[in-house]
Design goal:
The complex is a heterotrimer. By secondary structure, chain A is mostly helical. Helix content of chain A is 69%, strand content 0%. In chain A, helix 2 packs across helix 5 (93-117) and helix 3 packs across helix 5. In chain C, helix 2 (9-43) runs parallel beside helix 5 (81-105). The chains are: A mainly alpha, B alpha/beta, C mainly alpha.
Chain lengths: 250, 307, 213
Amino acid sequence: MGVIWDYLGNSSHWSGPEGVPARVLEHLEYTFLALAFVCLIALPLGLFVGHTGRGSVAIAGTANALRALPDFGLLVYVVLLISGRLPADLAYLLPSILVLVILGIPAVLSATYAGIQAVDPAARDAAKGMGMTGSQVLWRVEVPNAMPLILSGVRSSMLQIVATATIAAYVSLGGLGRFIIDGQSQRDYSQMAAGAVLVGLLAIVLDLLVAGIQRLVVSPGVTGRFRTAGPRRRPVLISSSQEGSVVPTT
Amino acid sequence: MRPNRVILASVATVAALALTACGGGGDNNPLATGSAPAAPSDTIVVGSANFPESTLLAQIYAGALTAKGVKVSTKLNIGSRETYIPGLQDGSIDLIPEYSGVLLQYFDKNATQVTSDDVYAALKTKVPAKLTVLDQSTAEDKDSITVTKQTADKYNLKSIADLQPVAGQLTLGGPPEWKTRQTGEPGLKAKYNVTFKEFKSLDAGGPLTINALKNGSIQAADVFTTDPNIVANGWVALEDPKFLFAAQNVLPLINKAKASQTVSDALNAVSAKLTTQVLLDLDKQVILDKKDPGEVAESFLSSNGLG
Amino acid sequence: MIAYLQDHFQQTVERFYTHAWLAVLPLVIGLVLAIPLGWLASRYRRVYPGVINLAGLLYTLPSVALFVIMPSIIHTKILSPINVVVALTIYTVALLVRVIADALISVPADVRSAAVAMGFTGPGRFLRVDLPIAVPVIVAGLRVAAASNVGLVSVGALIGVNQLGSLFTEGFTLDVGSIVLLGILLCVLLALILDTTIVLTGRRLTTWQRAVS
């Protein structure tokens, strides 16, 4: 078959610390580590700004400004700046994860606060009318309604991180980008193509995964999936909005 | 809608892969530099590899040629030898600074010559028809396996051969091409029976490798012998009694068609002035003092009456 | 950094220019391709899910992967800037198709009826009614595409394409942070220039919005 399959077809490339499974695992580690930090920082911030309406201009401005930064350049710059002063294991990992987090924040941040702000005011009104406090309104009404947007923000952020983590191989990180960078130095197109194909597949799989989570987590009232008539089995909801939630049935 | 998406994703992926499989067969190697737009025949394109000394030498060559009225353009920081040699062969670049020993091994994997003169003589016969090498300088810059003073003391290391019993516990760092090159891992195994526990793909003696050796994430590194970091950090470049890294004299590799008398004379004059000590000093200015390679090249040329 | 700029002014300007057209060309071609595709998806409901899902799929792929795979599909050499242009065009189309399709679908029904009543038919109605109404949304999509293209072009330095991204690789090999910083600043500048141009063009095309308010 094509030259692309030469590298993947060779079974010795599937074992050991430099084999395909090991690299896929490394790539996943970087992605989830960065994504965890992104959510830790951007979700609370976005919820706060969306719910209280304070600081939305500043946040919008920051998110947009961060988007204009070139991923590759930022990666190289931060590595040059701080890797010399870090201990061995973290020297390249820390700056890389830091950059992945910085680049991943805008998507989640803007999606979260936009999602909260876009919640139907009628729903908020009804909740307040029912006597809910501020935080109850947030967690029982606004968040479930904003879920589709929030999750789509997480999805874009994740894809952005997977893509940038690939480039991080340039500054000696592992992961699937390693096949591309090494393949180029060694003039091995088959290796480069293998890396590219694997990264593409990984992105698609992760994307479908989050789409699946979205399906499970977003309350069916919000997606309007069960609006069409007909007796259906109710799915088990993971969302905490199950008890006493007010879901608009527009 | 969801199951459709999964099906679509799978179908599209298979289709795309099938498409690439059909397209990517045979001798169509995307990494071979294709027919680049040829520079006007009186311009010499000077290339350099992706490490500072190569850039410096390229700037020196370029400056020397410009001083003699030759039209020059530069393509710096191209990549590894494996990347730019095809560029020389198809005309994307015309001239590049090279090192005799590794260059010989690139063209002849089984070369056994080790001294400067032997290597040079063999090189002249092994260089492909379109290319040629001009006079070599006495300046040498070799790859080395370098360790920190602590590591050298701990394992009593003086030469690469001493690594044989302990390499299995150590990590080697070098450029990605060392995984497959004769003068890299395969050569270490063949000549010295040295196999490291792990190899980390970093860069060609650049900041990644230097920092990694400094902070201990690797214990042995490919550091160029003219790199001022060796002296500055008290590191030990292990001796190479079996000549894994043969003589490495700096010389210009040039497209024969562009090697006119003026060009050859200018470049030979440069080579006459390059000694290892001079190279060490120039490298220190670029690598430690962080001076601009172009400026360092200029001052070298003017202080030697070449530019 | 200033010294570097002074010494390498010509080269830096060339790189800026190359980077600019490598980022802009896909935007233009992408827009031109996305409009008919988006229209198809909005007009024929059966085609909509397929087109949107395919676009989503293509957008999911990391661009580095596309840069590397492109040579084997279109038979170019890997150093060729054509890889970058084709890959980024695919990206831009994938992004804009959905935006355009949704924008065209959401043209209010009463506006459509009014246009038909006024005698606008087929392509005339599309060009003079539907599309102009979709302009604000298209502008928003183009802005995202422009910002992301500028960043993605710099990744091309990894496969040897000479543009502002080369400042990153150069600064890295020489271990000089200020060269990298220069590259970052120039990229941000380019992104700002493109963004402003797109916004201003959008405003000129939608004078009717401001006239009303």
